[in-house]
Amino acid sequence: MSGAVADVRDVLGIDATALEPRQPPLKKQRTVEKRPDGITRELYALLGENAPPVAVVEHRFKDKPKFVGPVAPWREQRFRNPARADALELRHWVRQNPGQQQQQQPAPDDAMDTDAADAAVAPPADPPQLDYQFAKFNIKMTILQYTDAEYDAVLRDDDWSRAETDYLFKLIQEHDLRWVIIADRYEFPGGSKDRSMEDMKARYYSVCRNVMEMRTPVSMMSAEESQLYHAMHYNKEQEVERKRIVQMQLYRTPAEIEHEQHLIAELRRIHDSHQQLLEEREELFNRLDYPQSTGSIAAYQGSQGLATLATTIMNSDKNKKRKSIAAPSGQPEKDDVKPVATAASPTAPSRAGSIIEPARGGGHGHQRTESTASATGPTPLKDKNKSNIKQLSKAEETTYNVSHHDKLQPGVFFRTMKMNLPKANSFMTKSPAVMAELGIALNLTMPTAKTCGKYEQLAKEIAALMELRKQIEKVDQETRVFKAQEGMAESRAKRSASVLSDVSRSSKRPKKEK
Question: Where is the domain boundary, 137, 160, 191?
Fold first, then answer.
């Protein structure tokens, strides 16, 4: 049926969707907010969807508590305070359980006689005394007590008498080691000295330590006794100095506080710069140091791996003559410090006999190089070679220009390249003018060792003088600035004085009559 209807609609040219009922649009759901308490319905309707500009809070009194059950009765009871020395008896109200009250006052029966009824009507007797609930907070300190024998043995002091010591311990026992109160109420009758709090503490702790040490030696004390003994050590001088420093800190002026803050900031800046310098130095050392190996060495732990590694090193250093294989003929050993003769020395000793040629045959294991022999120890052959070298005196070394070196740099270099000259920019820019003024050439004609040394010394002195002249110019500039400021201040003072004098003279002039 539905298919036939669709065919008829197609023949008549009627849109199939035109006759279908349209879906009603969905209504936008409104969220109804609860009206807050304390605001009327009409006022809340005027606000609409906007939130109230001011939070509306209704202040109400606390609800009346709802009691469930009977009211708990209160009863007056007697008590005594254990902290009091007298037998004072006081009373206070105590809340009782309603069940206990009913048990203590049962309802009389009709069958009871008159005496029982009178007894029930009569007020009950006072209950027994209770322990005072705050008596547990009355804690008394245990103060050490000494005997006459102990005082005569270890407690005698020329500055403290026995009566004054007893008075001090009495105050301490009474006020529970509260030193501020003890020092305030310390008034020993007949005492000629003003005792400070530090004097009282030093006397008390010294007495306690001496008595404890006399009763039980330090080596035989238990852990608790030893801890208490060491805790009673009192340094009077340190405590006095501490209080003096605290008093100085409390009475500082604003200028002193500002100066101290400036010094702290400067110290922090110096510390930060020093830390940065250390970090940069460590980074430089890490860069200059050889690269750390991060690979595995498992392949070189066996004999075959070590042989392969040795072959690789030999191939990489083929152009370098290693001392472990053959010592070079033109370089001295590290163990032998021999004079190096220059080409100008006609009597330079020959060094050919001081080095042994390496064994070229394959079957002689007793032939070794000089480096191997020097590693095992001195040999007679080495001593013989040393004895064949002529020892030159200081005058001969100066005459023949012989110098000693710990280690020579391989290759050709100029001696002027190794001079240690100042690297400052001011020296590099101003040193040519100074050298020209002194008549010294920048490039040495004969750069011998002595000439280069003198040149380095002269360059360092010139750099020091240039730095000194720079400082002097800076001080002169600051002096001129200060003098200019001082002159300006004096001129201002004179100008103000002249103005005041003119004003005073004008005020003293008689006024003209009109």
Answer: 137
Nearest to 88 by CA among 129, 134, 148, 139: 129
Looking at residues 312-328, what average pLDDT do you find?
A: 63
Q: What three-state secondary structure class fits 75?
A: strand
SS3 174: helix
Sign of the CA dihedral running 237, 240, 246, 248: negative
Residues 105, 123 contacting (CB under 8 angstroms): no
pLDDT band at 242; cut points 50, 70, 90: very high
Q: CB of 345 within 8 A of CB of 401?
A: yes
Q: Answer whether residue 385 is part of any domain.
A: no
CA contacts within 13 A on the Cβ side of 196: 8
Query: Is 421 within a domain?
Result: yes
d(CA 419, CA 444): 12
How far is the C-alpha of 165 from the C-alpha of 186, rounded, in Å?
12
- Single-letter amino acid, residue 269: R
Other C-beta atoms within 10 Å of 309: how many? 13
pLDDT at 356: 38
| pTM higher than 0.90 | no
For residue 411, which of 320, 350, 288 has the smallest C-alpha distance?
320
Same-domain check for residues 189 and 208: yes
Q: How high is the pLDDT of residue 302?
A: 78
**CATH code assigned at 195:** 1.10.10.60
Q: In which domain, by residue range, is 208 found? A: 148-234
Buried b (16+ CB within 10 A) or exposed e, 173-204: eeeeeebeebbeebeeeeeeeebebbbbbbbb
130 and 108 assigned to the same domain: yes
Give the domain-ending residue among 137, 157, 187: 137
Note the Cα 166 to chain centre separation in Å. 47
Please give the C-alpha separations between residue 175 and each of 142, 204, 249, in angstroms, as whole numbers. 12, 14, 31
What's the structural domain count of the chain?
3
My answer on whether 212 and 164 are in the same domain is yes
Same domain, 157 and 110: no
Residue 351 makes CB contacts below 8 A (sequence gap 6+) with: 329, 332, 338
**8 Å CB contact between 43 and 23:** no
- In DSSP terms, which residues pair with 95 in a beta bridge? 74
240 occurs within a structural domain: no
116/152 same-domain check: no
Shared-domain flag, residues 177 and 100:
no
Task: Read off the pLDDT of each residue in 262-270 and give the average, rounded to a whole number.
Answer: 95
Residues 158 and 229 in one domain: yes
Instruction: State yes or no: pLDDT of 271 exceeds 90.
Output: yes
User: Are residues 153 and 133 located together in one domain of the fold?
Assistant: no
349 burial type by CB count under 10 A (0-12 exposed, 13-18 middle, 19+ buried) = middle
376: in domain: no
Least confident of 23-32, 170-179, 326-335, 431-440: 326-335
